[in-house]
Amino acid sequence: MTDSTSSAVSEPAASSAPAAPQLTWKDFKSDQEVRWCPGCGDYSILNVTQKVMAKIGVPPHRVVVVSGIGCSSRFPYYVKTYGFHSIHGRAPAIATGVKCANPDLMVWVVTGDGDGLSIGTNHLIHAIRRNVDINILLFNNRIYGLTKGQYSPTSELGKRTKSSPDGTIERPIWPVRMALAAQATFVARTIYSDPVHMAATLEAAARHKGTAFVEILQNCNVFNDGAYEQVADRKKAIETRIHLEHGKPIRFGKDGCKGIIVKDMEPVIVDLPPGEEPPPGSTLIHNTQAVSPALAELLAALQPPEFPMAFGVFRDVQRPVYDQELLGQVQRAVEKRGRGRLEDLLTSGTTWEVR
Questions:
Q1: How far apart are CA 139 and CA 67, in angstroms?
Q2: Which residue, among 23, 32, 21, has the nearest Cα to 60 in the 3D structure?
Q3: DSSP letter string, 156-192
Q4: Cα-based distances in Å from 250 to 13, 97, 139, 189, 270
Q5: pLDDT at 344
Q6: What is the pLDDT of residues 296-312, one digit of tens each?
Q7: For the chain, how far is it from start to end, CA to CA, in angstroms?
């Protein structure tokens, strides 16, 4: 009798509430005409992001997209969510304010190499180190596209452009390494030409609690065409790209015939048995959750032509989230001192009377 009663009590009651409608990418598609150059990689990124937003399941009225200035920053017009097309480099700061004011919102930042890594570097680094619960997508085409082809902070050394006719004399910023140095809790890299990989990467970023930073390699076919030809070309990718998977051996090449080890504190390419499980110690094992970011930093530094470029999630760890910590402080202060009044604040402390 007791068992049957217990079973009856524990059985969940049938809900009369209608099931929430399943979202599709069309729910995140605005009525605005998409105005990028024909063939621009931004089209692929927009399409994939809309699909990921639908899969995550947060309704459009609870999503905010914040951008700065540049071709990528037209993004808020093209997604049917709330959005800010803000000012040059300030998108992370505005997104921080949005998230702290309303933590229930899902906040995305869309920026570019010329926006987020020039005038916006300061704001980007501080948002990352604070671990605000926002998703930062940095489109990196290694050029200023909107202003017609000047070199950007990520342009290669020696790059000839309208603003560097004799070649740049500045070494480029490497976005993933910058994010890791800023103590990011989630860092990833993907590419516009691989929508399947991009979708998986963006979904992982969206589900992360804290700042998620994703570098998206993107082609500007007008001012910097072929910037990532080595890694974008599917025929070459087998030799020029490492696909990172947590807990899996780091390998590349035909049938996974090459790996990476560390020798004398330097990465070294080694041969592996093709198509077979590599022997223990024969190549590095990827670990996104390692306490130390050393492995992620080593992988982020791999660059063609000496090494293949790593794609996927470099780091995915948990740390207290800034907006939650801030609201916790506010709540404790209210409990201790009461809510307070603005008038009392303005008339407290040292004041002057101007006659």
A1: 11
A2: 23
A3: PTT--BTTBTT---SPPP-HHHHHHHTT-SEEEEEET
A4: 49, 39, 26, 16, 11
A5: 85
A6: 999 999 999 999 999 99
A7: 85
| Both structure tokens of 215 | 């570098």
What does DSSP assign to residue 4? H
**Maximum C-alpha span of the chain:** 89
Pairwise CA distance, residues 106 & 134, whole Å: 7
Tokens of 284: 């590095």
The predicted model scores a pTM of 0.90
Q: Name the pairing type of β-strands 258-263 and 266-271.
A: antiparallel
Q: How far apart are CA 14 and CA 213, in angstroms?
A: 41
Work out the angle between the directed axes of helices 42-56 and 195-207 (0-180°, nearest 10): 50
Residues of the chain with pLDDT below 50 are 1-15
Amino acid residing at 232: A
φ/ψ (deg, to 5) at 201 = -70, -45
pLDDT of residue 106: 98
Distance, CA of 120 to CA of 85 (rounded, Å):
14
What residue ranges define each of the domains in the chain, with the CATH number in brackets? 25-246+287-323 (3.40.50.970), 249-285 (no CATH)
Instruction: Count the residues in the chain.
Output: 355
Quote the CA–CA distance of 178 and 10 in Å, as a whole number.
51
Neighbouring C-beta atoms of residue 12, cutoff 10 Å: 5
Under 8 Å between Cβ of 326 and 100: yes
3-state secondary structure (DSSP) of residue 137? strand
SS3 345: helix
Three-state SS string over 227-251 comes to CCHHHHCHHHHHHHEEECCCCCECE
DSSP 8-state assignment for residue 279: P
d(CA 59, CA 219) in angstroms, rounded, equals 30
